[in-house]
Amino acid sequence: MAEACHPNPPAATELSKAERFKATHLAARHGNYHQYYAKFRAPTVPDERLSILPSDILRNARVIDLGCNAGKLTNEAIAHCGAAAAVGVDIDPWLVEQAKAAYPDGPCTFEHFDFVDASAYTGTAMGKFDVVLLLSVTKWIHLNNGDSGMLTLFAHIHSILNEGGYLVVEPQPMSNYARASKKNKELRETYKTIQIRPPFEDELKAQGFERILQVERDEEGFARPVHVWKKNIIV
Length: 235
Prior knowledge:
Blueprint: H1 17-27, H2 36-40, H3 48-51, H4 55-58, E1 62-66, H5 72-79, E2 85-90, H6 93-102, E3 108-112, H7 118-122, E4 129-135, H8 138-160, E5 161-170, H9 174-181, H10 185-193, H11 201-207, E6 209-215, E7 226-231
Parallel strand pairs: 1-2, 1-4, 2-3, 4-5
Antiparallel strand pairs: 5-7, 6-7
């Protein structure tokens, strides 16, 4: 998977509005937008995607936030929702450094690696988790890695979750895929090959998850439900 980067685009005065929009998406092909929470999400604290969850899911839990951006939601899992510990992971090293700078002394930590890559997990001592957060990133993972990447990711998530642990997913709809793929040729080619579809019900059930909750929501135009899946307990 390609390393995330943020090349310096030409000055804004040299680009039309459409060109600036395209340049932004080319730089953030993994959805790794700078100032994401300021520009795209409602300024609620804690993030509504956390506050709508049953309180016992995050309370005293060990949480990993995949695609953490600059760490706002990772920190809120502890500060506002009672998680015991939280690890934020992002493919963009610049965003990880921003998260570390924003929360230098807090109980949450931040790691830079590609969480679709199995070897990345074996190189850490993170152990297992009670909750995996996968919020507003499935589209980017899918477009950059195809169907096989999504299946690999679900297998990784299952392996790092404790039995009875939770996967919280906010999947983007296929209509969002189409818009994103128009702005990047490589993503467009992957988009043409995609066969499995969000919200990935069959794939997650096959992996050993049971959906226990689906919350419909519309956050300032983000009409995306949040799904909570539970890892089956082996008896």
